[in-house]
Design brief:
Helix content is 39%, strand content 20%. With 191 residues, it is α+β, with helices and mostly antiparallel strands. Strands 1, 2, 3, 4, 5 and 6 form a six-stranded antiparallel β-sheet that branches. A hairpin with a 2-residue loop joins strand 1 and strand 2.
Length: 191
């Protein structure tokens, strides 16, 4: 097998090959989630240096092992590409929202999309579960295939942190999702 054949084989096995690249809004959401899940405060300088060094070595070792496993797997088995989500499905990376996953968000509300101008969606808030989103707000349209695609006149349940909407825990307002929001945010506020 030459280099070109190996590259072609690796491209066929890439699970993200059929998906568009992440847009700025999704990248900001991922970064905000990673920052939120980080430490609760700054560590002393000596501890940070040791952690960075250890993290760098660990990441390097993990990346080397993963690359070796990927190449070995590509050579040993044929590539299988999972189909992308259908028009009314959430992306394959999303798990079903739960009380626990919703409890990680600082803002949650039910709102109706009242206007869409370009990539800006105006939402009119009807119910607040957590946080202070205000009576109306403008959010970025979520790209098709990566979560909720807002449509004028439709009502949605929205979970966000630091202004970034979760495409997996947000969705069209259904009785089932509304009950999940009610349970998640009643439990987190102690009410």
């Amino acid at each position: 097998m030459n280099d070109d054949e190996l590259r072609a084989l690796m491209r066929k096995a890439d699970p993200s090959a059929g998906h568009p690249p992440l847009d700025d809004a999704r990248i900001r959401w991922v970064v905000a989630a990673a920052e939120r899940d980080g430490t609760t405060g700054p560590a002393p300088a000596a501890t940070r240096t040791k952690k960075r060094l250890f993290a760098g070595v660990s990441i390097g070792a993990a990346a080397t092992a993963a690359a070796g496993a990927l190449i070995a797997g590509l050579v040993a088995t044929p590539a299988i590409q999972a189909p992308g989500p259908g028009p009314d499905e959430t992306p394959a990376v999303c798990e079903t929202p739960s009380v626990e996953s919703l409890g990680e968000f600082d803002t949650a509300y039910e709102a109706t999309a009242t206007a869409i101008t370009g990539d800006d969606v105006t939402l009119t808030v009807t119910t607040v579960f957590a946080g202070s989103p205000g009576a109306t707000l403008t959010v970025e349209q979520v790209p098709d295939g990566t979560g909720v695609l807002f449509a004028t006149g439709q009502t949605y349940l929205v979970a966000s942190t630091d202004g970034f909407i979760s495409p997996c825990e947000s969705g069209p307002a259904t009785d089932g999702l509304r009950q999940l929001y009610t349970r998640a945010f009643t439990a987190s506020t102690g009410g």
